[in-house]
Write a structure and sequence with these properties.
The complex is a heterodimer of chains A (850) and B (285). In chain A, the strands form 5 sheets. A 6-stranded mixed beta barrel of chain A has the order 6-7-12-9-11-10. The longest helix of chain A is centred in the N-terminal third of the chain and has 48 residues, at 249-296. Helix content of chain A is 55%, strand content 17%. The two termini of chain A are 28 Å apart. Chain A has 850 residues and is α+β, with helices and mostly antiparallel strands. Chain A has 4 domains: 1-54 and 249-400, no CATH class; 76-242, no CATH class; 458-528 and 706-850, no CATH class; 543-699, no CATH class. In chain A, a hairpin with a 2-residue loop joins β17 (557-572) and β18 (575-584). By secondary structure, chain B is an alpha/beta fold. The model of chain B is unreliable at 1-44 (pLDDT under 50). In chain B, 46% of the residues are buried. In chain B, the strands form 2 sheets. Chain B has a 6-stranded mixed sheet, sandwiched between helices. In chain B, strands 2-1-4-5 form a 4-stranded antiparallel sheet, covered by helices on one side. The chains are: A alpha+beta (850), B alpha/beta (285). Chains A and B meet through α13, α20 and α23 of A and α5 and α6 of B. Bound molecules: adenosine-5'-triphosphate (ATP) and magnesium ion. Magnesium ion (MG) is lined by residues 91-92 of chain B.
């Protein structure tokens, strides 16, 4: 039987090919994701290993507040630490390290690089230290307060030459420097497309961050001590009140790799979640293809049975074919993944994130996972059709066509109803207050119910959806409608991937539009000023507090208030937790930004006071006058008195303090946004002009009107939405391929019919129309049911977020319409090739078939 | 024959002189026109279809097979012609070539005086839709369409309603009035063939081709179907060409053409079953 099965596989290469495509797509995405993630991780690991290649020790402050997810606030250390370290026996050299925001202004007066999007713009230090990461390739090291070096790429791009004057904007304001050197970063000209302005350590400290301080000290040993011993010795040698810690070169490399790895692993988890969704969708396609081909081979299998093959042998033969398909598909998918990974890298490059050059990483684990998953998925998808094929009675050899039916519709609907009821029951339990986790189960149950009910309802729904086609297109439309309805199982299995994809897209769209509406609402209510300046640089803290002061000095401005966020440790009920605290300027915020203080004006907030949200107050039994212990990231500790309680906590969170609190501390504080209220009668255009000129001086920030600002906040959701749509696109592609394969198989099966119709006068374009509308009806069947399911799913997700303050449910009408139109287009696209195949059916061959 | 002429002339009083150019310039794509005769000019010709020096060869070199070896034949309007001959003699091939389903290697085929080789694929399709009727041995019907839709299929494809009185008459004649909403799978083999006959007649085609139309049904049903076809010729003036192996069936025709090895070897007018059997014996079959 094995021999026969194998012969069967080889004899039908076309079918093997079609079935394999589904497997190939599913596994290609998986493989591509793995290869891409591995490559990314390896590339970055290599990058950091290179950076710290010559570093034996790394000295930094031990004072840090870590909020997890790579969010931490670490203190600077005094610049004098460099000399202290250098003089410790066993250290052969040391240099300060600073990396901060700085933007080079091009010759045309425009800042180089885009703020907000695109790679970051850095300011950093450079010295003659032996372990220095930067190498001067032309010119000399910057040594004086008015000298700088820039990276090779930026120099070339902006046509800067040694001796030119280069303007740079950084924390210390806008300044002109003399270009004395062009630098390269190890082997690369500049890492990741970022721009670099490089200064001697003193200038860097004063101009880029906080005068007299550096981020860390890098050092090299003289070889007499091991790195570990040297690190211990340095920590012991430095004064205790400096609060420093020393890491070995290996440790800092590892730590940085881990930090970046954490960020990347979130990204790769996201990618693999969606490639597993794609694979799940692919399962349907594989299952469908096996079912259709099994039905088409019914006669052949029956003939085998008639001449003495056992049920088991038939089933085995089918499974052997599945294994062959699995092997061919998975191996092809594995290599197709390489192309996909390259595509993803290219995509990153387009968005401006240039990866350091490196080979694609193809690990043993990728190979085994992809092959095993591919095989397992294929065989599992083939089991049911194979068992069914085994059950074919020998008599079926005498029957002619292999029309499938929905089986017992009553039983099917019954089972589906049981699942749906169970799902809705769980849902009801959650609404009554059960754990939100159960929602996942409810969703799963409903999905299963829909998929089971599919074949039972596919016929009536297809006939309904096809009605306009029959009306508009006459007989071709009628035929398409009947074709879509004739094999309800097949149609519903073909529509299932579309359904899953659309349901997910719909749910995400519902969620996004709800959140958008929520954000618009929140900002609309809280922000009552006229303009906002948004610090849209992702990589650095934001604006220096002096920007708000400068704006307040403008004659057209009635008031401007900066709003920032800082990390702090908050002691509540004896437990110490890192929290984000909102930092406001109580003197100016009134009438610009409303946090909903109960019966108070924000002006009552003093240096030693704190506002807490109503929720925080309730949970921790805080009242006005209670004390909250807060420590800032420099280690300073304060007993703050609750001076007010507010209700609008969606933006401000649980704690709000005054900017005064930070005055005199070692913590550098930034404003994330500045809100501006204009004077009555001030002209918008003139105030805009004044504000723009101040922003230009600071080199960062974007001026927005009230509505622009609100829109910008809301549209942040769109970015996430775009990413998710992009990832779901994988599933959509598989759904399209599923429709194509099914149509091809159907066309193949209906050759005789097509031949007959061509003989009695159907033109080729009418043949195409018939196939096209069948495809569109199938696609719309998936879309319509998917939209309904997605709406439900979206509602459930939003319901589960009710504690997060989302209390509305917005149905995205235009989104729904777009999905319907796209499904129509998907149907048309999917039909193109099968329709062409249908017109190529040879008339005489078709008629000669009996 | 008189009957048929009267029918065409009556339906299309202003018949233009046929030529290829006039054929093309007629409103070929005007689907809204319900008078079929406007689109295909009718020739006042007693010949519905003809083959001239038709040669159809398969293969090449030493292995060349002549399925049709220089056949010239006319099919007169209003005449019921049967084609007989041993298996492999070229009967189906001849029919397919004349009906525009297949192309000749050389020679020409005319339907209503139009040379099929000058038509594009689309024109050929429309020609089949409007001027030619088909009855095959089996699998005549589209399984997803009702009996009525199957009967009207060529008209529906052209977005036409056809001559409703005529269609009613056809349906009544074949006795399907109470089966119109049924699917082919719900009809017996004989009923299915009758639907096929009705479809072939519905468009009032110039000529109907039938390839062993009774090959798959029992003799009673076969006789029924042949009777319908005979009546269509006698009462409605149809032109029919039928391939058959059965002398009894052939006896329903006005004329029999005998093929062997791709050639016409004999012809018989006003046949009877006995005469046909005799002739077949003498032809060594
Ligand atoms: N596609 C083809 N390729 C090669 N030879 C062909 C092809 N189609 C038909 N023939 C040959 O042409 C000849 C005529 O075939 P045709 O089908 O016309 O015979 P027929 O008279 O209809 O036979 P039957 O009574 O069995 O239906 C036969 O010898 C056949 O083998
Ligand atoms: Mg034949």
């Amino acid at each position: 039987m094995f021999h026969v099965a194998l012969k069967g596989v080889l004899a039908r290469k076309a079918r093997l090919f079609l079935t394999s495509i589904a497997v190939v797509l599913g596994t290609a995405f998986l493989s591509g994701t793995y290869i891409f993630s591995d490559t990314l991780t390896t590339t970055f690991d290599q990058l950091f290993a290179d950076i710290y290649k010559n570093t034996d020790g790394y000295v930094r402050s031990s004072k840090v507040i870590d909020a997890g997810f790579g969010q931490e606030e670490r203190q600077f250390i005094p610049i004098s630490t460099i000399d202290l370290v250098r003089n410790i026996p066993g250290v052969s050299g040391a240099a300060g390290n600073i990396q901060a925001f700085a933007r080079i202004i091009g010759k045309d007066g425009k800042p180089v690089g885009e703020s907000g999007i695109g790679p970051p713009t850095f300011g950093s230090s450079i010295s003659d230290y032996k372990g220095e990461l930067w190498v001067i390739s032309r010119g000399v090291l910057p040594a004086k307060p008015d000298e700088l070096a820039i990276d090779d790429v930026t120099a070339k791009k902006e046509k800067f030459n040694i001796g030119d004057t280069v303007k740079v904007v950084a924390a210390g304001g806008s300044r002109a420097f003399k270009l004395v050197g062009i630098a390269r970063y190890g082997d690369v000209r500049a890492p990741g497309g970022a721009t670099f302005a490089l200064f001697d350590i003193k200038t860097a400290s004063e101009f880029l961050t906080k005068s007299g301080y550096v981020d860390a000290v890098l050092l090299q040993g003289d070889g007499t001590l091991s790195d570990d011993a040297l690190a211990d010795k340095i920590t012991a040698s430095l004064p205790n009140d400096l609060n420093i810690e020393t890491l070995t070169g290996a440790q800092i490399t590892q730590e940085t790799q881990n930090d970046v790895g954490e960020g990347l692993s979130f990204f790769s988890t996201l990618l693999s979640v969606f490639s597993f969704i794609a694979l799940g969708v692919g399962c349907f396609v594989i299952y469908n293809v096996f079912s259709i081909t099994a039905a088409q081979r019914q006669r052949e299998n029956a003939l085998f049975r008639a001449i003495g093959a056992s049920k088991r042998q038939i089933t085995q033969a089918m499974l052997i074919e599945a294994i062959a398909v699995g092997i061919v598909g998975s191996i092809t998918g594995l290599f197709a993944g390489v192309l996909l990974a390259q595509g993803l890298s290219a995509l990153l490059r387009v968005t401006g994130i240039e990866l350091p050059p490196g080979k694609l990483v193809f690990t043993q684990q990728t190979i085994s996972t992809v092959l095993i998953v591919g095989m397992v998925v294929t065989v599992i998808s083939a089991i049911l059709p194979a068992l069914r094929a085994g059950k074919v009675p020998p008599l079926a050899a005498m029957r002619s066509t292999a029309l499938d039916t929905a089986g017992s519709i009553g039983r099917r609907v019954g089972v589906a109803l049981a699942f749906a009821t169970a799902g809705l029951g769980v849902l009801l339990a959650v609404i009554q207050g059960a754990d939100n986790v159960l929602l996942g189960i409810a969703i799963l149950l409903v999905f299963i119910a829909v998929l089971i009910a599919g074949p039972a309802v596919a016929r009536p729904i297809s006939l309904f959806i096809g009605r306009p086609a029959a009306r508009l297109r006459g007989i071709t439309g009628t035929m398409a409608r009947q074709n879509a309805a004739r094999n309800p199982k097949r149609t519903s299995r073909t529509a299932a991937p579309v359904l899953i994809g659309v349901a997910l897209v719909m749910a995400v769209t519902v969620l996004a539009s709800t959140i958008r509406a929520e954000i618009t609402d929140i900002f609309g209510k809280q922000f009552t000023g006229d303009f906002a300046i948004n610090a849209d640089d992702r990589f650095f803290g934001g604006f220096s507090p002096s920007l708000a002061d400068d704006i307040n000095a403008l004659p057209e401005v009635q008031r401007a208030s900066g709003l920032g966020v800082s990390l702090a440790n908050v002691e509540l009920g004896g437990e110490n937790e890192s929290k984000f605290v909102t930092v406001i300027d109580p003197k100016t915020i009134d009438g610009i930004f409303d946090i909903g203080l109960i019966n108070k004006s924000p002006q009552v907030l003093t240096k030693n006071g704190i506002f807490v949200s109503e929720k925080t107050a309730l949970n921790n039994s805080l009242v006005e006058g209670s004390t909250v212990i807060v420590s800032l990231s420099d280690g300073s500790k304060y007993d703050l008195i609750v001076q007010g309680i507010y209700v609008r906590d969606q933006l401000a969170g649980g704690f709000t303090v005054s900017r005064e609190l930070f005055v005199g501390t070692a913590v550098s504080r930034f404003d994330a946004a500045i809100f501006v209220l204009k004077k009555d009668g001030a002209k918008d255009s003139s105030i805009r002009e004044s504000l723009e000129s101040i922003i230009k001086k600071y080199g960062t920030g974007k001026l927005l009107s009230k509505s622009e600002y609100i829109e910008r906040q809301a549209s942040q959701v769109n970015q996430l939405l775009g990413l998710i749509y992009g990832l779901l696109f994988l599933s959509v592609i598989i759904a399209i391929v599923g429709i194509i394969i099914t149509l091809l198989l159907s066309v193949h099966e209906r050759q005789r019919e097509i031949g007959l119709m061509r003989a009695v006068g159907m033109t080729k374009s009418q043949v195409r129309t018939t196939v096209r509308y069948e495809s569109v009806i199938t696609s719309l069947l998936g879309a319509v049911t998917g939209i309904l399911l997605g709406l439900g799913l979206g509602w459930v997700v939003i319901f589960s977020l009710r504690d997060q303050g989302i209390k509305r449910f917005t149905v995205p009408t235009s989104g729904t319409l777009v999905i319907l139109i796209l499904s129509f287009i998907v149907g048309v696209i999917a039909a193109a090739y099968p329709a062409r195949k249908a017109t190529q059916v040879d008339l005489l061959d078709a008629l000669a078939m009996t | 024959m008189e009957n048929s002429k009267a029918l065409s002339a009556g339906a299309c009083p202003a018949d233009p002189i046929i030529s290829h150019s006039s054929f093309v310039s007629c409103p070929f794509f005007n689907f809204r026109t319900y008078d079929r005769n406007v689109e295909f000019p009718i020739v006042k010709d007693s010949v519905a279809a003809a083959a001239k020096h038709a040669i159809k060869q398969y293969g090449s070199g030493d292995e060349v097979i002549y399925a049709l070896n220089d056949i010239s034949v006319d099919f007169a309007s209003g005449q019921f012609t049967a084609i007989m001959g041993p298996s492999g003699s070229g009967k189906s091939t001849l029919m397919h070539c004349i009906a525009g389903l297949d192309q000749l290697t050389s020679g020409s085929v005319l339907i209503d005086g139009l040379d099929l080789s000058t038509l594009t694929d689309k024109e050929l399709t429309l020609m089949r839709r409007e001027r030619v009727g088909f009855i095959f041995q089996a699998f005549n019907l589209v399984p997803t369409l009702s009996a009525e839709e199957n009967i009207l299929l060529p008209l529906l494809l052209g977005n036409k309603t056809g001559d409703s009185e005529w269609i009613k008459k056809v349906i009544d004649t074949v006795g399907l009035s109470n089966r119109l909403t049924h699917r082919p799978s719900e009809l017996s083999g004989g009923q299915q063939q009758r639907v096929a006959v009705a479809r072939a007649l519905a468009t009032q085609p110039r000529i109907i081709f039938a390839d062993e139309p009774t090959g798959n049904v029992d003799s009673t049903t076969g006789t029924e179907i042949l009777t319908f076809m005979r009546r269509a010729v006698d009462e409605l003036g149809q032109t029919i060409v039928m391939v058959t192996h059965d002398p009894l069936s052939a006896a329903f025709a006005d004329r029999i053409i005998f093929l062997a090895d791709g050639k016409i070897v004999d012809e018989m007018l006003e046949p009877s079953a006995a005469k046909v059997l005799d002739r077949m014996k003498s032809l060594g079959n």
